[in-house]
Amino acid sequence: MSAAMDTESTYSGYSHYSGHSKKAHRQGRDRHKSPRSKDGSRSEKSVTIQTPPAEPLLGNDASRAEEGQDDNWGETTTAITGTSEHSISQEDIARISKDLEDSVGLDCKRYLGLTVAAVLGLLVFLTPIAFILLPQILWRDDLEPCGTVCEGLFISVAFKLLILLIGTWALFFRQPKADLPRVFVFRALLLVLIFLFVFSYWLFYGVRILDSKDTNYQGIVQYAVSLVDALLFIHYLAIVLLELRQLQPMFTVKVVRSTDGEARYYSLGHLSIQRAALVVLENYYRDFTVYNPALLTASKSRAAKHMAGLKVYNVDGPGNNASGQSRAMIAAAARRRDSSHNELYYEEADHERRVKKRRARLVVAVEEAFTHIKRLQAEEQQKAPGEMMDPREAAQAIFPSMARALQKYLRTTRQQQYHSMESILQHLSFCITNNMTPKAFLERYLNPGPTLQYDRDRWFSKQWTLVSEEAVTSGLQDGIVFVLKCLDFSLVVNVKKIPFIKLSEEFIDPKSHKFVLRLQSETSV
């Protein structure tokens, strides 16, 4: 109860401070508008959806949704409220509708492939058993007695089928990682090979055994054993083609993000273009920093500001064409280019100064908050078990003391769209639960992490399109360039073959390591 009262008093005090500084907050919001609102696309084309007023902002698990998050959570959203708002632009609506349309066809293709593979696998495993059981069912009285060797073959068939079942489950029945635009050639060839193989065995079995009602039961069992042996060899071939062939590095690919030019290098083996694209995307979510379009608006706004300062007067009258005006503006912009580098230098220097200043304030605020929660833990250990605070309550208690400094830092570094108040509270409670330091808590916010670090709702890349001049089922070759496009940016992949390395050997005789110490007649004192 005391912990809850402390939490409520902390939030009420912080809400009281926010209420008295409402005008200052409104001015701060106007000053720190997001880069998207500067373009006019987010502010003019948006749809506001209100949730029912029955869910609190910081209540139970059902209320921990990020839909109720506002950009000004550090200043205005400090008390428990009953309503929440979320803005969705027309770009987001177009992206969602496109994903829904594309997912229908991809799901049908995926389930069709899984169904064909499952039916064929069931046929493969039931065929040897059917070869052994059909003579016992159809002409049991005419069969020759099964001796010791024949009974031993039963054990061989059972264990080989068990090994084949485990190997097939490990190699083929996996959770699919992606939906590729074309079929996997080697996998399709293996399925066709297995089908033709089993069909030929059934054809021979029907002509030579079922029609003639062969009485040599031991020969029939050996025929089933040979089928299982051949299936094991096909499984070994599948391991070589699907897994081992691509392990040896043969190509080096350079992946460049089109918007900010961030690049990475990867080594790949013998893969098709579509599978190489899948490997590139898997590494992209892990290695590339999260795509932040807000960082790209600085240069655009600076160029627009320079062009807005130019005025062109038409002295020849309205009959003159517009090409002269465009040439005049380009020439004037070229003359002003000499002084623009000074403005860029001072802008970057001022931005770095503000980032360092707000980072220092954030570090101090977080360290003080963690010191407070450590003192609370030491005091709470002496109280009754019913008055202990859980990590969620502790995070809510210390969050208002660091919220303003954290919000200012995230706005300065333009990361506010990736961190909601709910996600910060969850991360804070996680750090408190695992007894992590303030430095460990701040690591997520001081250094932009990879895409996988953030929630899927914050990703700008979910649906990808592979653009290639070559067929996507063809293998990688030297000089091939393909592009992975999403709605906001693209990844340009350039393939280079690893050169052939010729390594020679040179022998050095150990006896040749002889040295002489040369002493000078005059030495320094």
TrEMBL record:
It is a multi-pass membrane protein. The chain crosses the membrane at residues 111-133, 153-172, 184-204, 224-244. Residues 74-86 have a biased composition (Polar residues). One of its GO terms (cellular component) is plasma membrane. Residues 36-45 have a biased composition (Basic and acidic residues). InterPro entries: VANGL. Residues 1-86 are annotated as: Disordered. It comes from the Eukaryota. Keywords: Cell membrane, Membrane, Transmembrane, Transmembrane helix. It is found in: Cell membrane. The keyword Cell membrane applies. Residues 19-35 have a biased composition (Basic residues). Belongs to the Vang family. This is VANG1 protein.
